[in-house]
Amino acid sequence: MPDVKQSRSPYRIRPRIRVLRNQDIVIGPGKADLLEAIGRTSKLRDASKELGMSYMRAWSLVRTMNRTFRRPLVKAERGGAHHGRAVLTPTGRAVLALYREMESSSLEAVKSAWGRLRRLLAK
Amino acid sequence: MPDVKQSRSPYRIRPRIRVLRNQDIVIGPGKADLLEAIGRTSKLRDASKELGMSYMRAWSLVRTMNRTFRRPLVKAERGGAHHGRAVLTPTGRAVLALYREMESSSLEAVKSAWGRLRRLLAK
Fold this sequence. Notes:
- The structure is a homodimer.
- The first copy, chain A, has helices at 29-41, 44-50, 55-68, 90-118, and strands spanning 4-5, 11-21, 24-27, 74-76, 86-88.
- By secondary structure, chain A is of the alpha+beta class.
- In chain A, the strands form two sheets. Chain A has a three-stranded antiparallel β-sheet with strand order 1-2-3. A two-stranded antiparallel sheet of chain A has the order 4-5.
- Chain A is elongated.
- In chain A, 33% of the residues are buried.
- The interface between A and B is large, with 40 and 40 residues.
């Protein structure tokens, strides 16, 4: 999600949401972007390239997410006719949508205080 | 600000707000905690110790904040009778309060989607 940047101002605000299980990030900005790129490309390799992430790193994040939710978020095929294909499951699409909803709600919610804080910043 | 942790659940949500100027953090969780510790201790050395931060690092963060806002957030005395004393200015108190307000607003705003996301997480 793009940060909110005021025109002619060098300042912007960036709310970041992370869901943790103990100290591990269950879902945060990086994993959400990966889910989104998988949804767009249907290829784990293309998705990882888009994010400047190694293929093995993307695999590892997908594996972690698939284990942490009740149902897998990504269905990936490593062999057969559709080798390399990766698609978001209904749970994957729901999790991504809820994460984006949290980001937008957060951004909307901070706008009032952010407007007041901006006035205290130097030009 | 403490994360929201549901009882009996290993999961918690952590919204983090950062104000950026280009790639630099103007204020975020670390600087806010430093302001709060300065407000509590009135000593930069005690504040930095509380946060497990070196004294020079704390000085550097204070200098950056003081430069970035229209008016200084922290008034620190490095010599004289009150050597080592550091207090929040009215602007410093206002910035800290607005930052904490953004954190609470964000947390409140994500609760609904977080409730739905939690149901998708494994036990």
